[in-house]
Amino acid sequence: MSLHPSDNIPLKHLIRPGSGKNGLSPALFMLHGYGSNEADLFSFADQLPEDLFIVSFRAPYDIQPFGHAWYAINFEGPQGKWNDIPQALDSRDLVLKCIDEAVKEYPLDPERINLLGFSQGSILSYALALTYPDRIKSLIALSGYVDPEMLSENYASGNLDKLQIYASHGQVDPIIPSAWAQESVAFLQSKGIDVTYEEYPVGHGVSAENLGSFKGWLHGKY
Predict the structure, then answer these.
(1) I want to staple 221 with a disulfide (CB 3.0 to 4.6 A). Which of 43, 110, 138, 206 is the partner?
(2) Angle between helices 120-131 and 85-105 (to 10 degrees)
(3) Predicted TM-score of the model (pTM)
(4) Edge-to-edge, what's the strand order for the sheet holding 164-170?
(5) For the segment 148-199, what is each residue's pLDDT rounded down to a tens digit?
């Protein structure tokens, strides 16, 4: 496994080509969590449908002592933990740019662009899908939530009812409370979005049962 070189796609990434049976492949873009890297979610690649062309991005910000992030998180201060929203918005639009460039470079079907995000990558994936719903066909959001500050001001005017979302969360997640995910699901449903939501008796992670469930959900969605 090695990073795939590209002069045109700003974010470093790993790829697993699709089967290419029909020329252009449906694409699944992966966005990892805070402090992780492009190899994390890519570990699922061999267990996902072979016709999917999988691209796993590395987030643009380096954090110490290791790992990467889509945006900074301040864990201290008088107001408690807070997200760097300007960085998040920059990353949101950078990912879209990278998707556009990937469509040019790889045999991807631009009408079948799908996202899979975990934790911070899930939060950013929500922002991307809700801000640009005409560009995203489906989203698998693992252990995340919707942050309204990361959405465009006119997101609600988009064609949200065509977006398909699978969301899941750990019932004992100590990092992101499951209540935040439940509130996000209610928010999404209020916008007419088709959402499948599940919880599992785990913490901040993805169980084998969870993987099997979203793998099954993915069939027919892309």
Answers:
(1) 138
(2) 70
(3) 0.94
(4) 13-16, 53-57, 25-31, 108-118, 138-142, 164-170, 194-200
(5) 999 999 888 878 989 999 999 999 999 999 999 999 999 999 999 999 999 9
3-state secondary structure of 187: helix
pLDDT by residue (tens digit) across 91-134?
999 999 999 999 999 999 999 999 999 999 999 999 999 999 99
Encode pLDDT of 2-50 as tens digits: 576 677 899 999 999 998 666 899 999 999 999 999 999 999 999 999 9
CA separation for the pair 124, 35 (Å, rounded): 14
Burial of 212 (0-12, 13-18, 19+ CB in 10 A): exposed
Query: What secondary structure, in 3-state letters, does 44-95 show?
Result: CHHHCCCCCEEEEECCCEECCCCCEECCCEECCCCCCCEECHHHHHHHHHHH
